[in-house]
Design a protein that fits this description.
Length: 382
Amino acid sequence: MMQQKIRNKFQELFSTKGSVYASPGRINLIGEHTDYNGGFVFPGAIDKGMIAEIKPNGTGKVRAFSVDLNDYAEFGLNEEDAPKASWARYIFGVCRETIKRGGQIQGFDTVFAGDVPLGAGMSSSAALESTYAFALNDLFSLNIDKFELAKIGQSTEHNYCGVNCGIMDQFASVFGKEGSLIRLDCRSLEYKYFPFHPVGYKLVLLDSVVKHELASSAYNKRRQSCENAAAAIRRNHPEVEFLRDATMDMLNEVKGDISAEDYMRAEYVIEEVQRVLDVCDALEKDDYETVGKKMYETHHGMSKLYEVSCEELDFLNDVAKKCGVTGSRVMGGGFGGCTINLVKEEKYDAFIKEAFESYTAKFGHEPKLYNVVISDGARKLA
């Protein structure tokens, strides 16, 4: 359906046919705020993403159309050609980052659309970047490896979109595999696939449809707390580069030397790094009850120790608990966005009904519901 819409528009605008590429958004099952602490994250690609039709046009210009925004942009491939429209800067950034890595590319025509909900923490921007990085690599036979494609997306965020993000979103979008989650070591960038076949369960995101303004300043403050705690521990244990290397015993040794706030933040991170490893072990045994328990522990830590939840997310987490949902937690940086829920199929209908009714009664608007399935990463469709 979406693909057909893109093809029709491409034909209408450019009177020709191109190649079609897709990249997914992602969820992160567990491992939040661990990336900048050198720890592990545990994402998976989902069955929602971006699709683009692309064809080289033999000029030095890119002519791009966004179906979702009904907007057109045209730009060159040199640094001074940066387009005004923020959506077009993602495509421009991917072109520039590819060129910086020695990729010989030319102008192209493109039409794209997506079904990753914007602002719900499923990383629509990484899906867009990965689609174009993968497509340019394929169309112009550049032989850039997959890790570099993910880094092209990340560098686009840093250098052209003003977001100092980690590598997880782009990594998941490029490396995703149906039926698998990926444990990524954010320090060494080593990764491993783990089976995710929750037979009898659904994976559901409930979007609170709120975004609190605290996010960026609070993020920087928490990052600083983690660095303070790691530095204090390092004085006794020089081998501790990040909190990922620390234990609770090490943290307790310096409890008197750091603020209560820094201690709480560090406690959450040290426990969260371990939870990712525990969930990996559980998945290898198909033990989804343990996975769920760890998700609840993460929510508690994010709410009470890291303090990045909010009233709406805590409410959705409480409803999940009350309805016997196997696992539930805030997903993403916090202060709004979604909860991710692992729900037994027989409890699904009652949970969704209760969540919608009680949330609407309390906050005056409905949450949004997204059922997600773990799917493949960046690929060529046609």
